[in-house]
Amino acid sequence: MEKTLDKRTVDMRIISEWIERKSSVLDLGCGRGVFLEYLIKTKSVFGVGVDWDMEKVGSCIKRGVPAYQGDLAELMKTFPDKFFDRVVCSRTVQELNNPAKVLLEALRLADAVTVGFLNYGHWRNRLHHLLTGNHIITDADPYEWYEARPTHPISISEFESFCDRHNIKVTRRVYLGGDWETPCEHMYNLLCGYAIFEMTQ
Amino acid sequence: MNDAEENPLLTREGEVGLVQYYDFDYDHPFIFEDGQTIPRFRLRYETYGRLNRKRDNTILICHALSGDHHCAGVHTIRDRKPGWWNNMIGPGKPIDTNRFYVICSNCLGGCQGSTGPQSINPETGKPYNLDFPFVTIGDMVRAQKLLLDHLEIPELYAVVGGSMGGMQVLQWAIEYPSFVKRMIPLATTSRQGAQSIAFNEVGRQAIIQDPEWKGGNYEPEEGPRVGLTIARMMAHITYLSDKGMERKFGRRRRDSGEINFSFDVDFEVERYLRYQGQSFINRFDANTYLYFTRALDYFDLPATYGSLEEAFADVEVRALVVGFTSDWLFPPEQNREIVQALLRRRKHATYAEVPMDFGHDSFLVDAPNLYALMVAFLWDQ
Prior knowledge:
The complex is a heterodimer. Chain A is 38% helix and 22% strand. Chain A is of the alpha/beta class. Chain B has a domain of 107 residues: Orthogonal Bundle (Rna Polymerase Sigma Factor, Chain: A), CATH 1.10.1740.110.
C-alpha cells in the first residue's frame, strides 16, 4: 500500500519542478487537491483544479484549493487563450472521453502543458497481457475491469505519434522505470513505467 | 414536566433554542436606487452565538423571497416550527453558533417587521403601499450594511444565502469587497433569466387582478388573499422538482383513494399546494411580494457592471458557489457561470454541485452532502 502511495506522489515532485513561482496553473482531474495545495504553499501559484467528484471537491475546499466540480472540457471552454501559464494533466489523460480535443484545448489555454501518464507499453504490462490475455492492472489503477473506469491504455510511442500528427512540440520528457523512481535511460517504450511530457504548440 | 422539557427544539443538544428579535432604527433618509427617498427605516433582525473579542467571526445570513430574519431557534417554548434554516444553524451545525456570531435581518421592503410597503409613511401618516420606492437587491444590501455598522461589526467572516439571498451575497462581495472575507451563494444566479421573470409576472398578475388588491391600497387585515394564494401555489411548484413531487405525492388521493369527479381536492399534491398558499397569506404581504419579485427581476449583474467579470473585478472574497442538480429555477448552469467569471478574474472560487431531488428548495432541506461542503469551507480556514 505504501508503495502505491509513493507512486501517487512521484510525478507530483517532478511536475512541480517545472512550475514557476506565482504562475497560474489549471489541474485537470485535480482529485483531492494535494498537488495544487503543495503548489500554492511552495510556489504561491494561482491554481484551479477541476474534478467530477463532489466528495473530492470537498477535500479541495478543506485544503483551501479552488476547485470546479464538473466537466473539464466544459470549464476549459470558458477561459480565453493563454489564460494559464500551465495546464497539468497528470494520470488523467487515459480516462478522457476525447483526449485529442482536451489536449489541444489545453494547448490553447497555456503555453506549456504537462502530461503525465502510465506507459502501457511497459514490458510487464505486455507480458501480463500476453500470458493471461486479461486487461492490464497496475499499481496506480488496481481495479478489476468491472470496477475500473473506462481507460485508453496508451504507450509512449503512441503518445509521440499523436504529438507529431498535431504539430505539438515536446519540450521536455522524463521517463521513469517500472518502479516510477529510477530514471529510464533507453528503450523507453519497453522499459518506462511512467512518462511525463511537457508540450507546447 | 413543563412545556420547555417537552419541546425537543429547546432540550435537544445542538439547538439554538429560545431566540428573540431586535429592531434597528435608522433615523436618517435612505435613498433607493430608483432615486426615491424614505426619511427613516427599520430592520428587524436576530442574532445567534457571540461576537468574539476580535470581532471577526460574524456570518451574515441573507434570506430568500419568502423568508425572514427568523432563521434558527424558536420564539416561545410552545413553538413547534423553528426558524427556516434551523437545520444549518446551531451549536455544532455547519453554521456553528459556538464559533460564529450569526446575524440575519428581514430585508428592506419586507413585511416581517422591517420597513416595507405596509409600514406607515411618516410624511402622510398612512401606509406607503405603492408609494414605497422600488427596492433592489443593492438597496437591501446597503440597508444591511447600515445595520452592521450600527452593531460595530468591522468585517464579515462570511455572507451566506440561497436564491434571492444568494443574489444579496454576490452584491455584498461586489459592493463591500474588503468587508467580506468569504461568500457562499447557493442555488442562485447573477442575472434573473426570462423564465424566472415570466413566473414572477404570473404571480404578480394573480395579485394585481384580484379585485381585493385595490390598486395596492387594501386594508392591513384584508387584501388580495386569492391572488396571493395562487401566486404562492404556482411559485411553490417552481421550488420543487418533477422527481421530488412524484416521490412525495405521486398520484396519492386525499382520503378514500377513490376519484371524486369533482374540482375539489382529489390529489394529495393539490391539498399540499392549497395548504402552502393558505399558510402564506397569513404571514406575507401581497405588496411586498410584488416588490420583492421585482427586485429579483431587476437583478442583472452583467448589465449593471458591463459584464460579470467587470462586476467581480474588485472582489476579494473566497467563494464557494453551490448549485443543485434538480434546481430548474436557478439551474446549475447559472451557478457555474458565477464561478467561471470569478476564475476568469483569477479569484479564489470553488463550484460544487449537490445531487438532490428537492429542486430549488434543496438548499433548505436536510442535506449531509451540503453540510460537508459548508463545514469544509467555513471551519478552520
